[in-house]
Design goal:
This protein has 32 helices and 21 strands. It is an alpha/beta fold. Strand 1, helix 5 and strand 2 form a beta-alpha-beta unit. The chain starts with 7 loop residues before the first helix and ends in a 6-residue tail after the last helix.
Length: 768
């Protein structure tokens, strides 16, 4: 289908996807050095002559490649483009965006580096030779989007030849998640695996791998009835079946999918949209489990299945329904455990360990972090919660150690992990140091979209952010600006926004509420020397004041401003009209920054020039409350030039006192100070000065002694961090959800702050 045949929604998605892949840097992945190269000595260590010592060490002991090179954390995502993501045989070059995307998932979810490798070769034996020749480069190989039946042969041959893990995610990733859903589904309905009948639609790589693993877990092979495009795999088929299919040929009179679905306890679909009908579902056994995994459209929609059989349990590959069978639940973590243990292959025991942990996690008590990430959802084990959510931060903490343990038990671990508890603790960095930390905010915003007023409605960044917010379901936008100017900006930007349809438009030059607004402002400021005429003039010339009055009078739930003008000018209007929460004495600004190694929240970056110890303690309290709403556990460091009493200057004493006041306010939050910046990020540095420090791990909330220090630190880190995500400024302590951006804000930051503002209104008690 050409792009001219797309619907408006599909066209919008196409345009957004192409822009995403092209800007600001072409593609989705890059290779960056991990060591400094700033002087002659660095050069002599990185290259000649120093590099020779690393080469000789590896020559003597090849296992040291994992110590002296990136190989121990490097996976090759390899394809020949013959079965790309539902698009078919589009070739290796056209498949490259998918492989880059897979690399992003490896990196984001498990910190694994990836080379995406697209090979222009369809001959299976030649493909095996090419991939096998890459063994010295890679720590593992993830085969991707290679059509069946060649994929089976290629994987088998590579496993025979290589001493690194080889994993075909299309097969085994899907199989692992499906098997976990099967285990929990049958437990929920009280059926034994060895007795259930399974009807399968599809006989490709994924379907075969799923049933193979299910058989290993206890399903009887005689109870599996599989259909391909020509019907049931039965004993009288005259066409030639490949080896993988022949295992599941049955002596049966059934010929169609409808025949084998009748009386089945489980339907497994790895085929095409709509092949399972409601009438077929009616013929299944009581309380059937339906795994409809075709993407993007499943074999049957859950609402259709439930209309036919209200007692059925349904899982799909879609994120907009419960029980999403998503391979990201598995592949990053099985590779994490395999790489860290130096596994030479991924064994059946390792896959089973992965299945068991996924199934078990769905029945575990929900942590505060997970509950925050999915606000309003019932996360208890049941028909709509068979398997964990893809963004459950506990997945890596459970799966990777279990896989490493299974690798050692099955004899393939060349670097067995002796202390699994310490290993599990080390994995925490992958939970907190990724850009996924905005996920809880977006989820909460979508639950109850709020009316958000955008003061700078004529700014193109605002309009682009409004369109994204609408597509994401984050907010009900109110755009303030002159209609003619906004129409021109929308047309110039090629947006599809329609005033009065997609968003409420407030014209500051002609709004029927003008009298109500200036009178409200005069009531607030009349005793501060503001006359009625001054109030009228102020409301006419300030969109931020209009937005503030909207929130004050209940015409909006929250607001964003600050893209134009000075921060303090916007803050004056917010203070005058919206004011502080009743339980706080000061406002403050918190900026979040996601770097490669750390996720940091820095305060106070914009409001208080030289806060007192009492004010710093209150700022730290509000910051810690806000951090919890990102699904993170706050760890607070009060920063100074001093290190645990090494200085008696007033600024050091202030930070020490602030720490004591904060500890009294929030004794359940880890905090310490005063300390230097490196100590905040290194437990080892802290303990070398004070072994009994009351802060463990890495601090993520940094409280600075004054505005200059906080603002400078944030902006330096923002520019030096590798593609760091910034969120903020988050205005703390206001009586209503209000945030003041800065003129340097990008569209991405406006979108993030839109979600945060909406979340502030939707979540009771949110400190932001």
């Amino acid at each position: 289908m050409g792009h001219k045949d797309l619907s408006p929604a599909e066209q919008a998605l196409r345009d957004a996807a192409l822009e995403y892949h092209r800007l600001p840097t072409r593609g989705k992945v890059a290779v960056l050095p991990t060591k400094p190269l700033v002087n002659q000595r660095d050069l002599s260590l990185a290259y000649s002559p120093g590099v020779a010592y690393a080469c000789l060490a590896i020559e003597e002991d090849p296992t040291l490649a994992a110590e002296y090179t990136s190989r121990g954390n490097l996976v090759g995502v390899v394809t020949n483009g013959t079965a790309v993501l539902g698009l078919g045989d589009i070739g290796p070059l056209a498949g490259k965006p998918v492989m880059e995307g897979k690399g992003c998932l490896f990196r984001k979810f498990a910190g694994i580096d990836v080379f995406d490798i697209e090979l222009a070769e369809k001959d299976p034996d030649k493909l095996v030779d090419i991939i096998a020749a890459l063994e010295p480069t890679l720590g593992g190989i993830n085969l991707e989007d290679i059509k069946a039946p060649e994929c089976f042969y290629i994987e088998r041959k590579l496993k025979e030849r290589l001493n690194i893990p080889v994993f075909h995610d299309d097969q085994h990733g899907t199989a692992i998640i499906s098997a976990a859903a099967l285990i929990n589904g049958m437990e929920l309905v009280g059926k034994k695996l060895g007795e259930v009948k399974i009807a399968v639609s599809g006989a490709g790589a994924a379907a075969i791998a799923c049933v193979d693993l299910m058989v290993r877990l206890g399903v009887s092979q005689q109870n599996i009835f599989m259909c391909d495009s020509k019907g049931v795999l039965h004993h009288q088929r005259e066409d030639k079946l490949d080896e993988s299919k022949r295992r599941y040929v049955q002596r049966t009179e059934a010929r169609t999918l409808a025949d084998v679905v009748k009386g089945a306890d489980v339907f497994l679909g790895c085929s095409a949209a709509g092949v399972l009908t409601g009438e077929m579902v009616k013929t299944m056994a009581d309380r059937p489990l339906i795994l409809a995994l075709a993407n993007p459209e499943p074999e049957i929609r859950p609402e259709v299945a439930k209309a036919a059989r209200p007692d059925c349990i349904v899982a799909t590959g879609r994120s907009d329904y419960p029980n999403q069978v998503n391979n990201v639940l598995c592949f990053p973590y099985i590779f994490r455990g395999a790489l860290d243990s130096g596994a030479t292959r991924i064994t059946e025991e390792m896959k089973v360990a992965c299945v068991q942990e996924i199934a078990s996690l769905a029945k575990a008590e929900i942590s505060n972090e997970v509950a925050t990430a999915y606000p309003g959802e019932d996360m208890r084990f049941g028909p709509d919660y068979l398997i964990p959510k893809p963004f459950d931060s506990r997945l890596i903490l459970r799966i990777a150690p279990a896989v490493a343990r299974a690798a050692a038990a099955s004899g393939v671990a060349t670097r067995p992990i002796a202390d699994l508890d310490a290993y599990r603790e080390s994995l925490l960095k992958f939970v907190t140091h990724t850009g996924l930390f905005m996920r809880p905010v977006f989820m909460a915003a979508r639950r109850a979209p709020q009316r958000i007023a955008f003061a700078e409605g004529e700014d193109e960044r605002t309009l682009r952010a409004v369109q994204i917010a609408l597509e994401e379901g984050l907010a009900k936008p109110i755009v303030i600006g002159r209609p003619g100017v906004i129409a021109q900006r929308i047309e110039r930007a090629g947006l599809r926004l329609k005033p009065g349809v997609d968003f409420e438009l407030t014209n500051p030059e002609d709004d029927p509420r003008f009298r109500q607004y200036w009178e409200a402002y005069h009531r607030l400021k009349g005793r501060d020397g503001v006359t009625p005429e001054m109030a009228k003039a102020a409301v006419r010339r300030s969109n931020t004041l209009i937005a503030s009055l909207m929130v004050h009078l209940g015409d909006a739930d929250g607001m964003l401003c600050g893209l134009v003008g000075r921060f303090e000018h916007h803050l004056d209007h917010v203070r005058d009209v919206i004011g502080r929460r009743s339980d706080v004495h000061t406002l403050a600004a918190l900026n979040a920054l996601v770097l490669d190694q750390y996720t940091l929240f820095i305060a106070d970056t914009f409001v208080n020039e030289d806060p007192s110890a009492e004010e710093l303690a209150e700022i730290a309290t509000m910051a810690a409350e806000s951090v919890r709403h990102f699904g993170l556990t706050p760890r607070v460091a009060f920063l100074s030039h001093s290190m645990f009493g090494s200085s008696t200057r007033p600024s050091a004493l202030k930070m020490r006192a602030a720490r004591d006041l904060f500890r009294a306010r929030m004794p359940d939050v880890e905090a310490d100070g005063e300390m230097q910046g490196d100590a905040a990020l290194s437990e080892g540095v802290r303990q070398s000065f004070l072994p009994e420090t009351t802060l463990t791990g890495t601090a993520n909330v940094l409280i600075l002694p004054n505005l200059d220090a906080a603002n400078i630190l944030f902006n330096v880190l923002k520019m030096t961090g590798s593609q760091g995500i910034t969120v903020g400024p988050i205005l703390l302590g206001t009586a209503a959800p209000v945030h003041i951006l800065t003129p340097s804000a990008t569209v991405r930051r406006v979108v993030n702050m839109t979600a945060l503002t909406a979340m502030s209104g939707a979540v009771p008690g949110f400190a932001g």
